[in-house]
Structures are given as structure tokens and as C-alpha cells.
Amino acid sequence: MTTYVYDFASGDAGMRDLLGGKGANLAEMTRLGLPVPPGFTITTEACRHYLQSGGLPPELTDEVHEHLKAVESAMGRRLGDKDDPLLVSVRSGAKFSMPGMMDTVLNIGLNDESVVGLARQSGDDRFAADTYRRLIQMFAKTVQGLDPQPFDAAIDAIKAEAGAATESQLSTEHMWKLVDRFKDLVLTGTGKPFPQQPSEQLWQATEAVFRSWNSERAELYRRREGIASDLGTAVNIVAMVFGNLGEDSGTGVAFTRDPATGAQGIYGDYLTGAQGEDVVAGTHNTVALTELEKIDKASYDKLLAIMETLENHYRDVCDIEFTIERGTLWMLQTRVGKRTAAAAFTIASDLVDDGLISLDEAVGRVSGEQLSQLMFPTFDGENLPAPLVRGIPASPGAAVGTAVFSAERAIEKAQAGQDVILIRRETNPDDLGGMIAAAGILTARGGKTSHAAVVARGMGKTCVCGVEALQVLADHAITADGHTIREGDEISIDGSTGAVWAGRIDVCPSPVARYFTKELPADADRLIRAVDRLMRHADASSRLHVWANADTGADAERAREFGAVGIGLCRTEHMFLGERRQLVERLVLANEEGQKAVLDQLLELQRGDFTEILRAMDGLPVVIRLLDPPLHEFLPSIIDLSIAQATEPTTENEKLLTAVKRLHEHNPMLGLRGVRLGLVIKGLYEMQVSAIAQAALALKQEGLDPRPEIMIPLVADVTELHLSATSARAILNEHGVLAPVGTMIEVPRAALTAGDIATEADFFSFGTNDLTQMTWGFSRDDVEGSFFGKYQELGVFDTSPFATLDTSGVGQLVSQAVKAGRAAQPELHLGVCGEHGGDPESIQFFHAAGLDYVSCSPFRVPVARLAAGQAALADKGGEKSDSR
Amino acid sequence: MTTYVYDFASGDAGMRDLLGGKGANLAEMTRLGLPVPPGFTITTEACRHYLQSGGLPPELTDEVHEHLKAVESAMGRRLGDKDDPLLVSVRSGAKFSMPGMMDTVLNIGLNDESVVGLARQSGDDRFAADTYRRLIQMFAKTVQGLDPQPFDAAIDAIKAEAGAATESQLSTEHMWKLVDRFKDLVLTGTGKPFPQQPSEQLWQATEAVFRSWNSERAELYRRREGIASDLGTAVNIVAMVFGNLGEDSGTGVAFTRDPATGAQGIYGDYLTGAQGEDVVAGTHNTVALTELEKIDKASYDKLLAIMETLENHYRDVCDIEFTIERGTLWMLQTRVGKRTAAAAFTIASDLVDDGLISLDEAVGRVSGEQLSQLMFPTFDGENLPAPLVRGIPASPGAAVGTAVFSAERAIEKAQAGQDVILIRRETNPDDLGGMIAAAGILTARGGKTSHAAVVARGMGKTCVCGVEALQVLADHAITADGHTIREGDEISIDGSTGAVWAGRIDVCPSPVARYFTKELPADADRLIRAVDRLMRHADASSRLHVWANADTGADAERAREFGAVGIGLCRTEHMFLGERRQLVERLVLANEEGQKAVLDQLLELQRGDFTEILRAMDGLPVVIRLLDPPLHEFLPSIIDLSIAQATEPTTENEKLLTAVKRLHEHNPMLGLRGVRLGLVIKGLYEMQVSAIAQAALALKQEGLDPRPEIMIPLVADVTELHLSATSARAILNEHGVLAPVGTMIEVPRAALTAGDIATEADFFSFGTNDLTQMTWGFSRDDVEGSFFGKYQELGVFDTSPFATLDTSGVGQLVSQAVKAGRAAQPELHLGVCGEHGGDPESIQFFHAAGLDYVSCSPFRVPVARLAAGQAALADKGGEKSDSR
Description:
2 copies of one chain form a homodimer.
Chain A: E1 5-7, H1 16-31, E2 39-42, H2 44-53, H3 60-75, E3 78-79, E4 85-86, E5 88-94, E6 104-108, H4 114-122, H5 125-142, H6 149-162, H7 172-190, H8 198-212, H9 216-225, E7 233-239, E8 250-257, E9 264-272, H10 276-281, E10 287-288, H11 292-295, H12 297-314, E11 318-325, E12 328-336, H13 341-353, H14 359-364, H15 368-375, E13 378-379, E14 389-390, E15 392-395, E16 398-404, H16 407-415, E17 420-424, H17 432-437, E18 440-443, H18 451-459, E19 462-465, E20 470-472, E21 476-479, E22 484-486, E23 490-494, E24 499-502, E25 507-508, H19 511-517, H20 526-541, E26 545-549, H21 553-561, E27 567-571, H22 581-589, H23 592-616, E28 621-625, H24 638-647, H25 651-663, H26 674-680, H27 684-701, E29 707-712, H28 718-735, E30 741-745, H29 748-752, H30 754-758, E31 763-766, H31 768-776, H32 780-783, H33 788-794, H34 810-824, E32 829-832, H35 840-849, E33 853-856, H36 861-882
Parallel strand pairs in A: 3-4, 16-17, 17-18, 18-19, 26-27, 26-33, 27-28, 28-29, 29-30, 30-31, 31-32, 32-33
Antiparallel strand pairs in A: 1-2, 2-7, 5-6, 5-7, 8-9, 8-11, 9-10, 11-12, 13-25, 14-24, 15-19, 16-23, 20-21, 21-22, 23-24
Helix pairs in contact in A: 4-5, 5-7, 6-7, 13-20, 15-36, 20-36, 21-23, 22-23, 23-27, 24-25, 26-28, 27-28, 35-36
Binding site for Mg(2+) (chains A, B): 746, 770
Protein name (chains A, B): Pyruvate, phosphate dikinase
Catalytic activity (chains A, B): pyruvate + phosphate + ATP = phosphoenolpyruvate + AMP + diphosphate + H(+)
């Protein structure tokens, strides 16, 4: 038979799935002998049963009854007893913390009789009345779903009657009046008197907590945080203890270390004569936890000892809630404490020094996300003025610029050299150009999955969205309190906090980012030293190498500074933008002879391009991808040409329009690109390979060690690679240059036939961007801003498959290709150069799949190095945990 | 050690790979004891050695020498003997017949001495001289690569000198003169005298044949026919026999049955006193083979007996070449005879009656290609006028219409109800609309892989291309002999023969096509009876069912007539064209409320659509695919709107343009389609499922047996299917209608995660069109007309992967998904509804992969039924042949 109820004494911290986080940790503390009020947990399984069938499991009644008895006997009180009643709280607690999202009911067990007993036992009549009216108020709202407004109105009426400014000024008598009024409100609202049976209160409250799992706000929160919707919540039934029983009572929250900075020493707040909700509500003035030493030294010392026990036991910073009832300390909750990115690094390093964890573990205690947060520039945190408005922090970073209100203006001003912040009510795909041009993006509508948010994160661009207090019009915006932002006004936005300021706020470059490009200074602060320590250990542990994607010498230098040991993707099409675009246009539109002339011109230019990047990466590999232009990007716009021809027709224009129409593709992503173009335009790839060979030769003559590798894009069939690689190798031979020739694996068919393709390749580089596009049938340009938000809401995926590798689909192709490729060609070198190469979760997969390197944008190199180390250490740790 | 030479007595018909077709069959006839001149074959392996290394294998010399000795001893003559010389021919012969593509040299072994012996032995001085000059002429051209023109000029000069009108009028003396002149020409051309060493002649001729494998015309032919380029050719060295030794000599070609009609009885041509080349050249008037009975009864009787032996032995129609030298019959070649589509069916059936083959084998003797040829309409073959011009038959069928010279005019006239033939110099993707509108397509440029050809075949549209004799101008075309075709002129084109006529030629509907839609008439002709017999046996043998793709009741009825036992794909987006397009446009552009109103309207219309098709297929399954529109096809053209807005701006137009721009997709193929649209537009799929359920209910009430199945398109992840299928099943339940709910497998990820997806699906239908597009990264609309021709030339593939399933890439996904799907859900029903469902080669794959049915266009149903039967019989046959 299924067990639906666990006593705190019979669970442990490992049972989060079944007991929820709160319940599991209460059990763990109980097992440690810490002073936890007696109680038990109704499992998430009971919740799932309830949510599926609409009713509680029948066997639950007996189980709860039995455990309740144990609590009663431990406390020496009975639920509903008219002389000395036991009160309990009914608290939600899911596997993953969902603060404030679900319901809790306190003081269950009071009724017209037992309230008298409570008054007698506590010796505090007013306290008893207050506790009862709180139960009725909370029960009515949470369990019975009544409108809370009349209850608030009743309090206001009593206060007016009594001439009291605050509730605390109400007399005992007034409190009893309030109890009566609240009972009347329940009778009116539900047609029935307030339930007097404590067990009825208990069951109704339990069901209410279960129901609250599916409340709208809880669902929204789960979608946002990527928490599965079928987990359900547990319910914790805990004997009530009271921090509001006078000056020798109180309540507090604490961390075993400072969660903001990681500084050692306890950190928390305490409030005398109050309950936990008063601390959380922020309606009372708390004192620093250290003050408790003066107020109640015994409890303080005991608390310190408990906190030390907890930190040693959990081997991490703990976050606790406690209550002191008339000099007795009770632990109400603990969990591993959340912390800032900076604190995560210093704490991890300190815990090593304290002997609590190993360096291996310390590397696992920080995340790539945290490291990348530390690398973004920020606004100076100390002296910030109050923001003008706040929105949703959608894509981190600090951006400052002049306001613009259309994509066109953003592009114009950016081209004129200005930093601009693009402000839109909401963005859509037409704004893409403007978003690329802008330093930051600000919208009035939409959340973290809105078009603006998704696209900005994809571009690594600062974005604040959903600033509801901002009314965005055609050429200006107005805040709720009437401040107007006009085009040209300077504004500053913080994508990490959601703050928006009028005017220019100074941006501080990140000291962590600066650290990565320099030697460790002797006077480095604790954070930098912690980062340095963990990064060194990650590097020393990792098997995967980290390369970078870079198209210019400058990018390559930056990548090298950040620790890249190769260039995994040099996109030659980026060398054809700007003024050279016309050459490509001519190349595509010309006949064979015309093409020859263009190619001769391009050879000179490309030789220079390659010399620059090979020089910057002297001694390290540089994988140069031969041209893979989406054709349409190099042709004049068919719409512009059509309009021009319709308004002022010319013969030349007509000729061009005809040619562009001929080359126009319905789906350029799946059109004449990559190796296809290389095979169709005679001499194109040959020109590029010659330029690479000539650049390498020249550098060698200077005594350098250029190490180019040639990569053929968009191969779907071994014959395509055979033709282009054979020609490339012949040209390299002619020049006497040795260079590996390999291919992107970015078309599903290439992955499926990797065994064949490997016979012609020195290396594979997985192009997981295109591979994701084709495997899912997603045109990234179209879908991310169109229905990805909806898909995340619907739970099709939590994270965009363009951000984190879809291991079950795309990953399957990668693993399959690695296996078949290596089987056919054991020397095959394997890497990845899609954006996933910089994503920690994906890097873990690439490590497990057996790749040799990941290549990512220069700025992500440190994150990738950390993730590579973590993946290797997790392997090691995984082996250990298996042997337990 | 490798054996490079096989005597005719030591090979057999099974050794085609090594001996080539000609050599293997000569060996087989030798083994049968038929009179084959002595000889031997140098293998294709020697050729491959030669082509790779540039030289003959060293051990070949000894081997050839030894086999030559055997021939000499068999003939009692020696090569180069001055008294009684042996002459041999050196004949090419590859695995697959490549008629006229490679070289042959006759009369090897003659020199200034042996020619005297030949004269003496033959008693014919003129014959000897003529034979010698033929050797020199052929050797100079073929082996030495000299220009043939001076040799022809020398003959003309001699004829003029002799006052002779033809070569046969030249005297013996003139022949000798010609020998001298030819020898002079060789000396002048090569700087060396004509080689007198017979062995030197032999080796040079052998190398020349090997080299001719890589001649330009041979390469072109292979590419066109899809013959691998690394096979190489064999060389046959055969003792010469002479049909030109007077009236008791002669030569002929024959078939054991009529290859045009399949009629029983021998069929062929005979020419007295001539060599084979004279018959082939068509320069002499041959007589019917039956005349030989009068000319040389003994040889005739012997030939008839041999032909019977051959047909019994090969169990098929044979095509032979023979020579009679002074009353002695020699067999020079045999092979299984090529035949027309009609003959293939009647012969296969007749051979069963003759007891030569089983009915199982007979089904394997015809091809889907032949059946589909028989189903095209034709021009009346008997009374055809001479065509105006001829081109390349690129896509079969007979089309008649008025000429148009632009896509625009084609569309206009077609919309006005006219049949048009679109005439273009060459077509490009802009012509697509016109090609769709036209009854037939005619181009002046390009071969079978040109844009016009590829696209027309894809559409099943009649096409003649590469009519070089036609000069196509802007609004008319001129033939080489000055005939002008103007817009509006009627023309007729035959895509099966390449003929083009001015004026209207009557089109005969195909009697075979008519047969499929009717009961077999009692007076059916031999062809129809043969087709009926083989189709019945194919149906009885097959495991795969054949369903059809149909979107209307009329299409469904036609499919049923052709033998479809279900509709595998009813595309509901086809129900939204025409006047209803506006509704879809409104649906897409409206807000939620507006959408609701449109959906209500659509529900009515769709209920009617579904009622019609379910009624037509009463009692048979109809798989209805929920809407999968490429969004852009339902929206106004962004180019037209932009032009309109630029020229005559209106507010309404601007609003529309903004909306269209917002929805505009860069790659609509990979955009907001299929289930994505179904999940984004609230109520869309629900409306369609309701319409299906209502239609089914209404038909049931009429007492019919509607069997709808609901198919969700473009699923990539199980959650998409879960959401849409759950909703569909709920609606079906509400209506009390039972219907399977399944999904297309057309996105690579769906195939990769088929095990998960199967848990939510009652059936899979492989959409191999889209699956091919995404697996290869090919946008069909763009690539077929753009670089597919080039890719076929380069050998990336022989056949477009859209025509025949790419088994190694796309097929791998299909097999994988079948396996994983069935493992997860043993009851899963599996089919395919891409165009590959009508392609015989692909059907063989689907049979092997274990699908339950294939679904194809109604017209292809008979072909698919035949292929399904063949696939099952090949399985059976495969088992048999294993046990041999």
C-alpha cells in the first residue's frame, strides 16, 4: 500500500520528490536532533492523486489521524481541546521552491470552544482572540475563496469605532468583536457558519493547498521557471509555535553567510513579539540578527550552534526561519541558501578553505550563468539614483544610449555612430534590423518569452521588457507619472535588474571580465581570487578544449585573451559585407567570364583577411569555413527593386529585377548555399583555398606557424565533400601547404550518413544552429519571435532549442554521427561551432558525446571553459556516487 | 593471381560484371554449343586497372598470348600468317549496353603480307584489298585518333578517278590504290608507317577500347542513364567471319518475338553479301528475315532452331546478330531483347502460357515505368503527319493547345479556359506559375535535367525540351526551315517521342487507363488481357496496401476506380483556395474575436467538404490532415502590396501591408505551419475536427459507414501531438464518433523521437516530401530548377531524391521511426503519403521497411499496386534464389 504520510522523524533531505523541499528539510533537521515542532508531511503523491481524481486518497484519513495523534502526544495537547488545544499550520511545500505561489493556513484547530482554552493557557485573552480572527480571515480567503475585501473593511470599521490607528492598538474586546464580524461574513459568504470541527478545517485546508498547485499564478511561475506541471506539492502539518506571545518571543530569518557578497559570518533579521509573516511582509522594523545576543543570549547561542551544525551538515550556506516562543527556540525551515553570482564564487572557494568541500565540488557549486552575469558590465551599484521606471529584466547587461522609437531610426542613428536604445510598445520581426543596431531594447509589453526578450537574449543584447508603466507612442513615451522620453533623450537600462533611468548612468566594466584578459593582479579581491581558483581547477580538470568563433584578427585576439586555444569557426561570408557586398552581387549575377574577373579581385582581399586572422592565432588552429552566404543577403531587395521599377522604370533596373527574380528563393535557408554554391560557381572555393594557402605561405616565410584548416559548409552527401575537398587538397598540395580539410555537420543527412562522409574528412564540426533548424523544421529568424513564447507556455520546451541543445532530437544526430564518424575514421577530429558551444548545459552533452572541442563566441569562452571543467568533474563525481 | 582473360568456353551469362554483357552472352552461347566464332574476353578489371594506372596489367600479355593461340588452333589459322591469316575483331562490351558509345576495331591481323594470303584463301583479291583498307581507315580514326575527313576525301578522289558512283563499283585495282593512299595518310598523320605487327595492332586497339570508356559521349550517356562511371568495359577478341564473301554470305539481326507489339514469331532483317555494320548503317536495303528461307534454307532452319534454343534458355525474348560466311552460320551476339511497354506486358503473359516462366516471374518482367507509359494518352500512332521539329522527350504524354510565350499569358489564357502550350527558350523558377497553368511545355534549350524537364516530370506534365531547331523569341518562334509559330497557333507535342507538330493532332485516351476504371470487357485485346492478368497476380501477391491522395469527392472516386483502398492524405488546405482564400486571410489577420466569426463560417463549409469525400469513400478509411497552409500562400503578396502602397498609398493598404510584413517569413517552409498554427490559432483545429465529426455522424444516420482518420501535420515533438490529439479526441468523444488520431512523420525530429510520439498516435504517415526537404536541407521549390541538374551531372545523385526515396538518408529515418514506433506501440498503423508513395523503387523500400500502406496520386495507384506486388514477389523470389 502506498504511504501518503511521513512523520518528520521518518523522512530525510533526499526525499524532496515525495516530501517537497520544506518537508524533506524539516525531516532532516528532526533527524539531526534540532528543535523542530512536531509534525508530518502529506506527500506530493497524495496531491497528484487529488489533482487527477478530484478527491483525496481514501486511505489518507486514517494515516493523518494516526500521525496527528503522535503530534498531540508529543505536544501534550489535543486538536480542538477546549482546555489546552493543539494548533497546527497547513503549509504547502513543493519539490522546487515557489515562494508565495501556493497557500498556507495557520492556526488550524481553533473554534469557539478551544479559543477559550488557548486564552487560558497563554494567559493572553487578546492573543487568543487575535489568533482566532486570523484563522477565520485566512480560511475564508484561502480555503473558502471568499473576497478578502469585506474582511479588510471590517477591520477598518472596528479601528474607526475604537479610534485606533493600527491593529495593535485594538483592545481585547474589539478583537472579539472582530471574531464575531468575521464569522458573520463567513456565514453570509458561504451560507454556512465557520466550521467548528478542527478535522474539517484540516481537510479543507489540505485540499486548498493541493488546489493552489494549479492556481493561475503558480502555473505562470512554473512556466517561467521551467518547473514541470505534474509534480504536485506536499502539505506539511506542523504544530503551531508563536513568536507573538510577548517580549520573550520573536521570529527571524537568517543565512549562515552573507548571500549577497559571500562574506563569512551569520546574516539575518530578527523581530521581537511577531510571527514570520510580519517579517516577510516588511511591515515591521526588524533588527539585525546580532541584536538577538542582547535580547536573548541563550537562544542566540543555541541558534549559532544550530547554524554551524546545519552548514557543516549541508556543506553549504543555509537559509533558515526560526521562532522563539517564550524563550524556546524552534526551527521552522531550512534550505540551501540562494546567493548572488559573486557570492557563489567566494562561498565555494571559502568552503574549500573551511574544509567542508573539495575543489572538485567547489567548481560544481558555481554556474556558467553566474559567471556570465559577472562578466556583464553593470551600473555602479553604490550611487545609483532611483530609476524612472522598472520592467522585467529580460536580457542582462547595462546599456546607455539615446532613445529611438523605430527600427529605421535605430539603424540610421547607429550608422551615424550613436549608441541607441530602441523603445517599442512590443517588437516584431520587422524590428530585427533595429534590434541589431541598438545597444539595448526597451518594451512596454511582454514578459521573458516575448519577441523582444527571446531575440535580445539570442543576440546577447541588453533588454528590459514589460515596463507596464510606460506608454509608448509613435515618437515618444510617457511614464505613469507623466515623465516624457523623446527621441534623442539619453536613457540607461539595466537588463539584470529591469531598472530604467532617464539620463546617462556610468557603466562599470566588469572586473571579472577584465581579469580574464590580464594576469591575476597581486592585490586581487576575494571575488577575483575565487574566480581564478575555480577557473584554474576547471581548466586543469577538463577534457574538452574551448575554441572560439571569430571572423577578424581583432575578434581572434580577444578570444585568445579569454583563453580560446583555437578558432573553430571563421565565417568568410562576414568578409563579404560592406563595400565588398557589390562584388558578391556581381559574382552571383555575372556570366562565367565576369565571375572570373570578380574572383581575381576577391583573391587579393581574401588573402589579406586570412593573413590577419592566422597571424593573430599564430601557432593555434584556425578553421576557415568556405563561403556560405544566404544568397538573398547579397542581392538587392526584390521589394525595393519592384517598387523602383513600378514608380520609375529603367531598362537597367528591369534587367536587375529579372535577375534577382530568377535567383529569388522561397526558402533561402534551404536553397543555393554553402557547398552547393561552391560547386555551382566555378572557381569560388578554389579562390578561397588559394587565398588561404597563399596567406599561410607568406606567414611561414616570416617565421610564423600558421595553422589553417579548411571547412566545407552545408554538406549533405559524401559526393559534395569529395568533389570540394579533392579540389581543395589539390590546391593546397600545389602550394605545398599542409592543412586539414573537413566539413560542417549541419544538415540532418550529413549526420545520418556520417560514416560515409568521414571517409573524405579530416574533421567534423557540428553546426548545431542549422542542424537544429532542419531537425525541428524551425527557421530561427521566423519562429523565435513568432510562436516560441507560446510553445514555452504550452510546455513544448522550457528553453529554446537554439539556446540549449535538444539532446533527444538534435543530440541524437550528433551522437550517432560521432560514433559512425569515428568508426569509419578513428583519427577524425570533432568539434561544435554552433551557439550551443557556449551553453553550459549543452557543453555537458558535448563532453559526454566525446567531442574534442567546443567553439563559441569570444565572450562566452570563460563560461565554456568552466562548463568543460564541470562536465569532466561530473563524470568523475558520477563514478564516485555510483560506488556509494 | 587475378585472371584478366576468359575464353568464351570458360565464362557464362552470370559474369556480366567481369565480362560485360556481350562477352558474357558470347560465353553463354558457346557453352550452349551454338556456333560462336572462337574468341575470348579481356575483363573489365583489366580496364579499371588501365584507367587507374594508365597502363595495361603486365600479366595481361602472357594471358592474351595463350588465349590467342587457342583461337589460332581452333581456326587453324595464325594471326599475321602470310598464307592463311587469322583476323580478329576487337569489340567493346560493358556491363550495361551503351550502344554506339564505345569503339570497335575489325580485321585486326592484316598487313602487307597477310593480305596476300587472305586474297589467296578467299579467292577474292578485291575482298582482301577492301578488308585491308577498312582496317587502316578504322584503325587510323579509332586507335590513332586521326581526322577521318582525309580518308573520306581519298575515297571520293578514287571514285572520281574511276568514274564510280559507289564504293562497290570500285575495281580491285582501285581498292589497292586506296590501301596505298590510306597508308600514306597514316604515315603523314602519325609520322610512322601503319603498324605491320598484328600484335601491336591488337594491343593498340585494346587500349583504344579501354580509353573510349572515358570518351565524352560515353560519359554523357552514362550520366543520362545513371550508369556508374567506374565500371569500365570489357574487350572481346573474336575471330573474324565475313558476310561479305559473295551471294552465299550475308548478315542479319533478329528478335525471337516482335519487340514492338510482343506478337509471337521471329522478326528481323537480312542482308546478302554484307557485313553487320552495313545493316546497322541503314545504307543497304535489307529483306525480311523470312526471306532467308528462300535464300539459304539450311541456314534459316538452323537459325530458327538456335533462336528457339536461346528463348528457351534465356526464358525471354532474345535479340541476336548473326553472319553467314559461305553457307556457314555464325552467332555474333545475343542479349535479352529490349521491347516497348505494350510488348513487355504481352510477352510476359505469353511466356507464362508457353510454360517458360511462372506468373510470379512474369510480374517481375514489367516495370511501373512501362505501366505508367501505357496509361498516358497518346497521339494516334498510325496516321501521324511528319512532325514540324523534334526535341528531347522529357516528360511523357500528349498535349495539344495554343502556343503562348510567357508564363503570364499561359496563366491568363488557362484561366480563360484554354489549353495552352508554354513555349520558352528555357524555363526558370519565374515560369513556374505558367508551367502549372499549361497543358504542356516546350523549350529550345536544355536536356533531360534542365529546369523545364525536371519540373515538368515532377508535375506529371507533358514536356519536350531541347528543340535546338527552334528559335524562340519574345512572342513567336521560328523553326530552322522558317516555319513561324505565333501566339494562338495550335500545336501538339509528344513528351514520349519528342515530336512537335503544327496544328491539332487528335489525342487517344489510353485503353489501359480506361481498363483500370472499368470491368474487363469480354473482347479485350491481348495487351489488356495481359495487363489484367499481371495486375491481378500483383494484387494477390502484395502485402502493402495502396491508398491514394485526394482532396475532393471526385478525386476520391477516381482513386477508388483505380483500385485505391483508402485515402491516405486529404489535404484540407486545398479546401481553402479560391473564394475561401479570403476567409483564411481574415483568420490569420484577425484578432481572437474576429477569428471566432471566421471559424464559424468555415465550420459549415468544411462539414460539406468532409461529407463529400467520406461519402465517396464509404466503408474505406480517409485520413484527413488538419490545416497545414504555408502562411504566405494565403496572404496577399508583399511585393504587390508594397508597389501599391508606393504608387497609390491608402490607409487600409498600409494597415494590411504592416500586418503582412509582420507575418512575413523568411523561410515559410520552416515557419508557422501545421500543428504550430493549430496550437497558435485558438479553435482552428477544433473547428476542423468538429466538422469531421459532424460529417461522419450525418453519414452514419444515412446508414453509410464513414471512416475518417485525423492526422496532425508537422509534429516535431510529442507534446505538440499530445496537445492537439487530446483536444481532437475530446471533440470526437463529445460527438460519439470513433476515429483514429495520428500524425505525419515529416520533420526529422519526429522520426528521431518516434518512440515518444507513438505513445500519442494511432498511426504514423510518413510525409517523405517534407522529410526529404528537411533531411537534405532542400527547398524543393528552389533547388529542383536551380542546381539539381548540376548535381545530377556531378553525380551527387542519379535521380532527384524527391522522385525516388533517398534510402541511405531519409530512408534511415523512416526505418528507425518504424522500429521505434512499433516498439512503443505494437498496434501502430504505418503508411506513407509523400510522392514517393507512387514511385516503384521507393515502394520496394517501403515494403521492406514494413509499412502497411503507401498513398499516392490517383493516377499512380495502378503503378503502385504493381510495385507492391513486385516487392512482395521479390521477397519470395529472394528466398528462392538464396536456396539455389
